[in-house]
Each structure stands twice: as structure tokens, then as C-alpha cells.
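cron nightly-structures :: item 1 of 1
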Amino acid sequence: MFLALFAMAALPIWQVHTLPLFDYPNHLARMHILASDTPELQRFYAVNWRIVPNLAMDLIVPTLNTFLPLEVAGRIFIMLTMASVVGSVAFLHRVLFQHWSPWPLLGFALLYNRFMLWGFLNFLFGTGLAIAALGWWIGWRERSPRLCVAIACVLGVAVFLSHLAAFGCYAIALGAYELDQMRRRPGAIATRAALAALPFVAPALLFVTGPSGAGGAIVFSRFLRKFDLPYSLFNNYTPPLDAVTMILFVALFLIGLWRGWLRFAPSMQAPLIALVAAYLVMPNQIYTASSVDHRLPLVIALIAIGGSDLSQGLRWSRAIACFAVMLFIARMVVISVEWQGFDRQYTSARAALDSLPVGSRIAVATPDDGLRIRSGEAPMVHFPCWAIIDRDAFVPTLFAYPTQQPVGFKPGYSDQPSASALWSALVTKDASATLPPSLDAYDYVVLAAPTGFDVAERPGWVPEYQSPLFRIYRLLH
């Protein structure tokens, strides 16, 4: 059942030529820079490896790229991410209840969540590792303490390097589990606390000494948003189907608990309560990490699935399983249809980028309201980053934050026109609108948006490619 559902979930990833995950082109472009050393890339970008808690893709994909094409390596990493998420839920369930069950396969219903569509792959990969590490600790803590702590120390560093938010959830869940065990078993509290702290020593030192611990803003969003954020677990392209999925998902849990069909493992109650409490008080931004509180509902839901089980012999179990599979298939059909439609829009635009000279310098103009995911609107904000992959071009919108990525810009290439400011100046009927002086250093300007737009004609701007959502202009200086 797991393999069948996994194959079904993997199908959309392999059936399109260009993946429409929002941030994915930007991340894959960084993988190309890390794995290649062409003169053009060396002229524009600097590789500066440092310990930052956001390196899952950066460590795995360039390694795969040594013997696989880059785009294949990227898709395999997505497969590993999906396996990490749903496999860890099944593993946690097996550890807690000592038997295999179809119940944790309900995690497949949450696989194509909002974070997957945004392309938050490091977070998702780290979340799977975190849940697996939690399952390892619970399963082997009493059975073999030394082996458990030794492996947990390695897993702790792996989760930390994958993503900071996933590591934070892991620390909260494991800490709450240990505190609950100390309450249940009062003896040797000091020894138990010391052993539980060991997996977090190395990550704490790495965080304090690395650039991620260098400070930054802490921002809280409106508290009422806490009540609608769980919808992001189901929200993709069809609001009616997404809403029905969420209602049925929540109803299944509530009715199951009320009727006694569903039971939670006693050892999971404290971690779930701690994660919910953390979600309610968590800020939206910590240091340079944004949408921190948005990520917790997914972790809570996955642990709730892995930490619960249907009562044995429940006559409704097969009906529930069949309905869940049908709902999952319907969601996969929606994903496939939407992505194939996006792929048709991408094909000619990517061919246009591929026709540009190697080493081109490309300014990017995108609207602020382009940061969204909707049915029928192909994600275009980071699409120009395909020019880095296909033509070793310079694209200033590449993610190159010192606290998050091991890639930066070489001196002389950091004076970048703002993509949104450039959009505001270009998408106007006034051809005399002031343009930033830094635009003189670029060979091309690319405009990309999820919906159609108009651009005023300008002297010295030669149209190279035009479509409703994507345009390329060659600059004659």
C-alpha cells in the first residue's frame, strides 16, 4: 500500500518537463552553482560554505549531480523528501504501537501541502528526519541507552543542518517527551535529563558560533491567523476539494476520539500539547527565517497521525481507508492537471531563456502580488533563474542570504535593481518613468508575472520574446 501510494504521489513530479514548485528554480539554480565551476559562474557567484541550518538540498543534490543530470538529481531529492515525510510517520507509528498499520498512510493526504507547492524542500526533508529521530529516541531510549544517545546525536546534527524550524520542532517534541517520562518515572532524573540534552549540544554550538545566530528581527503576526493556518495543509489549487478534505480529516479525528475508534499513544500526548502551545506563542519571523509559525501545523498533524491508531477490529476501517484513497487520488488528479497546464506555459518561455548567450546578465522585474499560488496561474517569480541553470547567466534574484545559503554574489554584482521596483517602473503607460542606474550593467530584462501585463515601449529595448506572462528585452546601451 505504501509503495502504491508513493508511486501515485511521485507521478506528478516526473510527468512534467519543468516543475512548478514556486521556489524550486531558485534552489536548483544554487545547486548548479555549487556543482559547476564554469568561468561565467565563477565571475558572478561566490561559493562560501558555512554551517547554516538550511543545507539539506545543498549537500545532497550536488552530490547526486556528480553522476546524474541536475534536474534528475533535483527530482530524486524531492522523492527523498516525500519518502522522509510519509516514511517517518509510518516508522513512528510502528515504534509506538508495535505493529504495521494502514492508518499512518493517511500522511499521504498531507503530502502536497502548501509548503510542498512553495518549494520549502529543506524544511520538509528536515521534518521527516525530525519525526524519524523522535521515533528512534522513543523506541531505543530504554532498550539501549548508549546506542540510542549515540545515534540521536548524529540525527540531531542532521536535522539541524537540514532546517532550523524542523530542528526546533524536534527539540520541543523530544524535550516534552522526556519531561513526561521523568514525571512518570521519578528516579534518576538528573541522569535522564543529561542524556536527553546530549543530542542538542552540538547543534547548539553550531548555531551560536555560526552566522544563523548573529541576530535579527523577531516579528509576530496577527494571533487570529493561528486559526486559519492549518488550512495550508490541504490548500493547493481547488478550494472546494481542499475544504472538504480538511473538514473530513478533522471530523475523522474528532469522531474517532469521541467514539473510541481512535486512540493516542500516551507517550505522544505531551509532545503534541507542547507543539500546540509553541504554535500559539511562536512568532512569524525569527532572525532571517520567515513564516516560522506557519510550519508547525504540518509537524503537529504528522505526529498526530503517527502517534494515533485505529481500534483493532473496527468495522469501519476498510470504508475509511477506501474513502481516504479515493480522496487522495482526486487530489493527485488535480495536481497533475494543473501542472501539465503550467508546463505548457513554461515550454516556450524556457526555450527563449535557453536561446540567450552564455554568461548573460539578466535583470528581473516581478510584481509584489506575484507571490501567490492559484489555480491556472503558473508560478513565474523565480522562473528567470532557469537561465542560471541553462545559460550560466547572472540573475540577481537568486537566493544568496549569508545566514541561509552557501552562495553569494561576487564584488561588483551586488548592486541589484529591486525586482518589484523595476516592475512598477516598467509596467506603466509612461515610457519616461525613471529606471534605476544599475540597469546599465545588464544585457537583458525579464518580466514575469502569473497574469497578463502590458509594458510601454522604450528606445533601446529590443523585444526578444513576448508572451502574456513572460517577456524578454535586450538592452542596447
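cron nightly-structures :: done
The beta strands are 45-47, 218-219, 262-264, 285-286, 308-310, 362-365, 407-409, 444-448, 461-466, 470-475.
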